[in-house]
Amino acid sequence: GVLNYAALPGMACDGDNALIKCPFVSDDGASHAPFLASGGASYVVSARSSEAKAKAALDFTFYISDPAVGFWDVAYPGSFLDPLRRRHTASLSNPTSPSSQAFLQYGWEERQLEQIKGVTDFNFLHENYVLDLRILGANIYQEEGTMPHLVKMWSGEQTAKETADVITASWSAITDNFGLDEQRAMYRETLGLAPYTEPSSAGARLEIIIPVVVVVALLIFGLVALVVKQHHTIKYKTRDINNAPRDGLVALVFTDIEGSTALWDASKSTMSAALEIHHSVIRKCIDKHHAYEVKTIGDAFMVACPSADVAVRLANDIQVDLLAAEWPVELASMPSACVEYLPNYSRETQPKPMFRGLRVRIGIHVGEHSDSAEEGGQVQIKYDDVTKGYDYYGPATNAAARIEQLGFGGQTLMSSDIFEKLSEEVKGECLISQVGSLELKGVSHEVFIHQCLPKQLKGRRFRGVFRRRDSEGGSIIPDDDDSMHLLDSVHDEDRTVDVMTLNPVQLQSTIVRLRTKMAALEKMLQSKDYSTNGKVSRPQDAFAYLGNSTLTNASEITMGDDSNHDEAKKGD
For residues 130 and 365, what is the distance between their CA atoms, to the nearest angstrom? Predict the structure, then answer.
């Protein structure tokens, strides 16, 4: 944690000294200092309370404080209680334990238990977590030096000034009893600080001299770094036309940021700083692989590479370096840029981040150059006299852009043409899986797509196999029940939806709808009008009934005459 002038997380920080008091202050005036602390709680019962009430209060105290029973409240979503102790979740790795059964009984899935346990362990074992900060005599300060005197003031036996004076005297006596040096030593040891030393006059002078020297040194260092960076920028331009493919095979890479519009709306200053980091990371990778930056459109990049190997290695480095970048801390509160960790990590190791900061989707395709598409070429290369650089047109360019649009943030998709041209060495550096053959807008034929990620990102998961058009990857099942009324209206993507891709709210909503439909179906099957010797005579009538929101009883449905039944059976 940040000590001395750091306010607690969430406290308002404003005024002339905001940056001094709150070094982690954000644009909204709140401190986001990475500090977590917890302490004990006191339970007070009025002496005028009846014995029954006092006993009830004591029973409640024991109940809420005992992890052996308190896990029921933690497991119940309606209590809004997070785990208060590690013992609440310590046994969740065993699905048969009482606490696991409590979570499962209240609707949690077994796959979520280890995640809850992992998050709790991560929070309570974090280096910035401080448990129950205390000094020697903390209980005595409260029980003997404070409360008895407050009681006398509340009962009218002494004034507020007399109470303050006697509390001050009591605290001084308690401090003298334990010794101020011993209390300081214990407190600083709790915080992991060096032993306290009294400041001297010489030390005071050093406190002035050292910061001045450090500031001057930092200014000199910053000036040198600026010159070096400027020299680097001039020497290593990503638009160096010597790196631009001008003939033969051209691999095209498109990138884009997921949810960038919402991020800009959330905080322009944060997104502006994040975009600088994003551009810097991608351009550094382009320089490293001697690729060619064709153009940027908003926050999207188009890059040309001389081979499939270079394109895939470039994409892999972009994904890894973006994960490791130093992003603004405010991004952590934004859903499409927050940190996500690899699930099911062991207690002995630190959790492995899978997402952190801006999430960039990447699409890769390859084509052969020719002067025109009519000659059978997939890429036409033109030199622009105005921009003094090369641009790339044609079917391959369009296909690469469409492939990029299919990806989720943090995902890299490539065509089978790229995959077939990869060397075995590069394939060995990647985690490659098949997505399937897809139709792309503006592309005359289906394109077989592969997902490709560097092995460092093993475990990164997405909200589906690929992102459907005009979707940010949410539930594939629409909120409108109309799509579930008839079998004919349920599309293929609805049949193959993976519930693992739904967030808890979407999943709960889907379950409620399905339960309603199943209850109505069961009611209909029990109706004599729909059953023949215990069997449904027309299955499609069952689904038609489910879609008819105006009917409340199965008996209200008109089946039609027998001739229609016979024709329907023949058709079925």
Answer: 51
Report yes or no: 343 and 500 within 8 Å, Cβ to Cβ. no
Strand 129-131, strand 36-38: pairing: parallel
**Cα radius of gyration (the chain):** 33
Residue by residue, DSSP assigns 237-267 as -TT-GGGS--SSEEEEEEEEETTHHHHHHH-
Q: DSSP label at 335?
A: T
Q: Would you give the DSSP letter of residue 24? A: T
- What is the structure's pLDDT at 24? 60
Read off the pLDDT of each residue in 251-264 and give the average, rounded to a whole number: 92
Give 257's Cβ-side CA count (13 Å radius): 25
10 Å CB burial of residue 160 (0-12, 13-18, 19+) is: exposed
User: Tokens 């001008």, residue?
Assistant: 246
pTM summary value: 0.45
Distance from C-alpha of 542 to C-alpha of 525, rounded to nearest angstrom = 8
CA distance 379 to 365: 11
- Long-range contacts of the stretch 481-487 (C-beta < 8 A, 24+): 481/513, 481/549, 482/547, 484/513, 484/517, 484/546, 484/547, 485/543, 485/544, 485/546, 485/547, 485/548, 486/540, 486/543, 486/544, 486/547, 487/540, 487/543
pLDDT tens digits for range 417-448 = 999 999 999 999 999 998 888 888 888 888 99
User: Which two three-digit tokens encode residue 517?
Assistant: 């439909």
DSSP type of residue 57: H
Tell me the CA distances in angstroms from 148 to 151, 152, 191, one per residue in order. Answer: 5, 6, 31
Q: Could you tell me the CA-to-CA distances from 94 to 59, 68, 120, 193 in Å, in that order?
A: 29, 15, 16, 38
- C-alpha 458, offset from chain centre: 17
Residues 68-84: pLDDT tens digits? 666 777 777 777 666 66
